[in-house]
Amino acid sequence: MFDRLEIRILPPGRRLTAELRVRVNDEDLVAEAAGPDGQGPWAGLLFPDGRPSPLHATGEPHRVRLGEPECTGGCCGYLSAEVQRFGNVVRWSAWEVPDQQSRPPEFDFEAEQYDAELARAAADPWWHAARPAPPPAVTTDGAAPGA
After folding, report:
1. pLDDT tens digit string along 130-141?
2. What is the C-alpha separation between 52 and 20, in angstroms, rounded?
3. Among the residues of the chain, which ranges form H helices?
């Protein structure tokens, strides 16, 4: 039996304009593995404009940060997993968790459902408007153009 992935993008909160939360089998993975006050990453990090999502699974394993404790990952460590595709299965494994937290089990997702959930979350229109404006351009002398 396959695990079931659900990606939620939450409205603006204390630290992020669009926080990504991962649910597996109806459980909030960040709350379970990074603590009840843990934070998911900013949605734009996992769904960047013009590039594949780091959540996109290929035959090569790669590590993806999925959350951090309330005190930030730089303090106590991040919640991350290796993501890899094996034919029609996407596996999350080799967990790294914040201090004092329990490692989740390996998760095996049916690749078609997994890819559909990534596409659904990436296409969700509301959070794209929450992207921060790019910083102003700076000239080589450190002044903003036209200043």
Report:
1. 555 445 555 555
2. 16
3. 29-34, 43-46, 73-76, 111-123, 125-128
